[in-house]
User: What shape does this take?
Amino acid sequence: MLQALDVEKPYILVGHSFGGLVARLYTSLYPLDICGLVLVDAAPEYKELAYEKALPENLLAGNREYFENPMLNSEKIDKIQSYKKIVEHSRQSDIPLSIITRGLPDNIEDGWPSQEILKIEQSLQAEFQWLSTSSKFRIASRSGHYIHHDEPDIVIEEILLMLNGMGK
Assistant: This one.
């Protein structure tokens, strides 16, 4: 799409949620095309398995089924194959990386340990810092999963910092 639109390289990619996995994969496959990466509450690979540490017994089977069955997620994505692909291609680079994670828990359903899941998500997203020798991690304290709606100024600020750093 970028080529079809004749967008000039290098690119700053911004990926939210599952789009963070897509942006990470593109950056790994085409590092010379990328001058910055902003991950906005990006999905960590295998997060559903990490959730199992905090989930009560009655939610474990449903969580595992959601992870394994592409027809249960709204995007109809095969998460297992997608996660395998991202792990296979993940490598450290010197491409500037900004990681923004939510500061507020999601209220999904009764019995879902939202606060514990938030801590797991924040920890997993903090681990993205290894992807770049030039990374920063930031918590959007007044935001849920949709940081670009709740605190768009934070996302804009990180993109502008990347743009300003391009000339250096």
